Structure formats: C-alpha cells, structure tokens
Amino acid sequence: LIFNLEGIMLSNRDIRVLSWKQLKGSYWSIFAALVIVSIITSLLSAIGIGLLLAGAAAVGIAAYLLDVINNKKNADGSVFDPLLTGIKDSFVTSLVTFILVTVFTFLWGLLLVIPGIVKTYAYSQAYYIITENPEIGPMEAIDESRRLMNGKKMKLFLLDLSFIGWYLLGLLALGIGVIFVIPYHQLARANFYNELREKPVSVLE
Questions:
Q1: Helix 54-69 vs helix 27-46: angle between axes, to the nearest 10 degrees?
Q2: pLDDT tens-digit map of 10-26
Q3: Which positions ≥6 away from 104 have C-beta within 8 Å?
C-alpha cells in the first residue's frame, strides 16, 4: 500500500497510522538511541553539565527521527549518532535555544499554567527547524516555530493527548511499558513537523 501524502492535510489518526508503519524495522534502533541519549544526559546532569547537552540532544534526536521518516536511513546508524550530530552541527545554537525556550516558558508559566503550556507548544518545533537549518539563529528558530504553530497548537496537543491510552497501558505493565511507547510518540511528532512543512511522504507496505 502506498500513501502519497503530497498536498493532503493529515489528521492526527493518519499521523499515528503513518508513524506505526514507519516503526517497522526501525523501532529498536530508535528506542536504543532515545535511551542512550537519555542515560548520557542524565549521568552528565549528576555532575552538573547535563543541561549543556540538552539542546544538542533534542536537535540530534530530531535529526535522527526526520532521517527515518524521510527515508534517508532506516535508523541503522550508531545509537550515539543523535547526540554526536547535535553537538557537531549546532551545539551553540541548540544550547542558546534551549536556554531561551526554558526561560520564556517559565516566565509565561508564572502568569498561569495555561499560557505556559501554550508557549511550550508554540516553541515545540524549534529543534526540528535547527536540524534542517543549522546556520539559523536561536531567536529565528523560535520565531519560525511560533509561525509554523500558529493555529496548529491545539492539533499537536490533541495528538499528544491521543497517546494517553498507550501510556496508561505502559503504567499497568509495572510502569516499564511507558518507555516503549516513547519511540512511537516521538516519531508521530516528527511526522507532525513534516506536515507543517508540507513535505510529501510515501510509505510502501
């Protein structure tokens, strides 16, 4: 079955179905990459430098997921690739972006919880944008994310909300199952970005 998605606005259900198909043959590699990046940043946080790599890790994971869904690779590289990619290609930009997004979200959150959540979604595409344009400035990436998310924040919120059932099932599996949902969820978010960019995607089954 071939999905030719050019020019078609996908529903959240379509995004989930597409992401599920793309997971075939790539799930464990994506899972390993996410876990390795999480472990490394957590360990470094224990000695006070983990936050320095948070932005680079986010950019690297975004690049890794986009490569998978854009058929550039089948997630068969090293599980360390995401972190190394973020550090090599855009360390300073990703770091400053992470700091700015954290500060902006915190300040909006001081007003009320809802404005903080809204801004979290408004800034959510910044790392994908840096992935595709490493030369972009931090504020440019944030502003572009806000532009892309104009009128789309609720759709992404509902996409995230649609994974609650999966996470609840994961919790019932002694909590361990939660981590196995993350690759599916993150791939869906990457496909959401592709839709914002109106990129055609074909999947052959």
A1: 180
A2: 889 999 999 999 988 78
A3: 119, 123, 142
